[in-house]
Design brief:
The protein contains eleven helices and 13 strands. By secondary structure, it is of the alpha+beta class.
Length: 431
């Protein structure tokens, strides 16, 4: 083969390899485009501009109610970076409960008060939590706050509790080699994020029952892949920089990993044993409740339900009414940051005996400037995810099933607010 032909063959091979990363299934494309509107079709026609990725997971049951799963993809590419934002709180909740089960200290569980000390430069202590029933922090309350409306400091505390080293070793053990969680939402440097705060679990009298010193992650982190987006950005000093924003050292969670993480907890028997978390039946019940419960149902924290309405973190059902269908529950986690909107959901309609999973991300930043707070969340992003969600929901309502699912495992006895509770509501949080 002469040099020209060899060069052409190599270009063809590597070009084909790069194109092959992106996956779109004809069936999902047809479902979306046939039912789509102008907002949705605008995004679907420009998937590279909007960095859109969608995974629709069809669930079918056999006569014994055993589920099987089939993923359908639109523009899915594990190499196409999106900022996972608050979706990283999902695996952190799982890992924190798992760590509690490995501590195995008598009298310590997710409800035991835990306090954090300041162990290194820049760290902040935490000894009280006014939003909790007893006024003290706990792993359970961090998870509530991280899932119900996606508060940030609870995520930081779960990160400190598990530790950067164990977080990323856990991801690798479970086969999520393309994922990493290396940053808290606290403005820390890469080096500062390697350190964790010391923490102490407390007895009823305030004495220490169990403690862990500050930890440091010595494991190398692979930042060899450069990830830069945009035309310009504002830096930490609010100065405009005429160059792309650098995501190279940020958290990373490919969409299929995110989908599989949620599936591993909603349906642990459906994934390989190495992907399952070491959780108790009570842990699963706890997670199912707070993945699907509404702020209006939750007494602690007592959120303002005008600001934090029922569909606030249910992007596939978030419309102008702010209400959720009575017969539907969504077990999910969302994230929004830097112009990215993401949702990973397991949806159940108990009345119509419908279930499915839907995971999607979209990037809405038409001016190409990051960190300026100017993103098209309201005009493009939220409407797009709502439209995708409603199209798939209606498709599922009409899809024939050989066996109707028994969904009783996901019927939760939700909390109720006391109408006589006169405590002030929380109107402002960091999320």
């Amino acid at each position: 083969m002469n040099r020209s032909l060899l060069l052409f063959a190599l270009l063809f091979y590597f070009g084909k390899a790069s194109i092959a990363q992106e996956r779109t299934d004809k069936s999902l494309r047809e479902i979306l485009t046939k039912a789509g509107n102008d907002n949705l079709n605008q995004v679907l026609r420009n998937p590279d501009q909007y960095r859109v990725q969608i995974i629709y997971t069809e669930i079918n049951r056999d006569k014994h109610n055993k589920p099987s799963f089939k993923n359908h993809y639109f523009h899915y590419d594990p190499k196409l970076y999106f900022n996972p934002a608050s979706t990283v709180k999902l695996p952190l909740a799982f890992m924190a409960l798992e760590k509690l089960n490995t501590i195995q200290q008598k009298g310590i569980d997710k409800h035991t008060p835990v306090v954090f000390d300041s162990s290194n430069v820049g760290q902040k202590p935490l000894h009280t939590d006014a939003s909790a029933a007893g006024g003290l922090p706990s792993i359970a309350h961090f998870i509530r706050r991280a899932l119900l409306i996606s508060e940030n400091d609870p995520y930081n505390r779960l990160y400190q509790f598990v530790g950067q080293q164990e977080i990323n070793r856990s991801l690798r053990r479970r086969g999520y080699g393309g994922s990493r969680i290396v940053r808290q939402f606290a403005g820390y440097t890469t080096e500062q994020n390697r350190h964790t705060n010391a923490f102490r679990f407390l007895n009823a009298d305030g004495s220490t029952r169990y403690s862990q010193p500050s930890l440091y992650n010595p494991d190398p982190i692979d930042f060899s892949e450069e990830i830069k987006l945009g035309n310009a950005h504002f830096d930490s000093r609010d100065s405009l920089v005429n160059g792309p924003f650098d995501f190279t050292g940020h958290n990373k969670l490919p969409l299929e990993d995110l989908q599989q993480l949620l599936q591993s907890v909603m349906f642990p028997a459906s994934v390989p044993k190495k992907q399952r978390f070491n959780l108790t039946p009570d842990d699963y019940d706890f997670l199912y409740r707070y993945l699907s419960q509404y702020p209006s149902e939750t007494p602690y924290p007592k959120y303002d339900t005008t600001e934090f309405y029922d569909s606030y973190v249910k992007f596939f059902f978030r419309d102008s009414t702010h209400r959720m269908p009575e017969q539907v529950r969504v077990f999910n986690k969302v994230g929004w940051s830097y112009g990215f909107l993401t949702d990973v959901s397991y949806v159940v309609d108990f009345e119509n005996q419908v279930e499915y999973m839907l995971t999607a991300t979209v990037y809405v930043n038409s001016d190409g400037v990051l960190n300026d707070g100017k993103y098209e969340y309201d005009t493009v992003g939220y409407p797009f995810l709502y439209n995708v969600g409603q199209i798939i929901y209606k498709h599922e309502l009409g899809r024939e099933r050989k066996h109707k699912p028994d969904l009783s495992a996901f019927k939760i006895k939700y909390e109720k607010r006391d109408p006589q509770d006169t405590r002030p509501v929380l109107t402002e949080v960091d999320n």
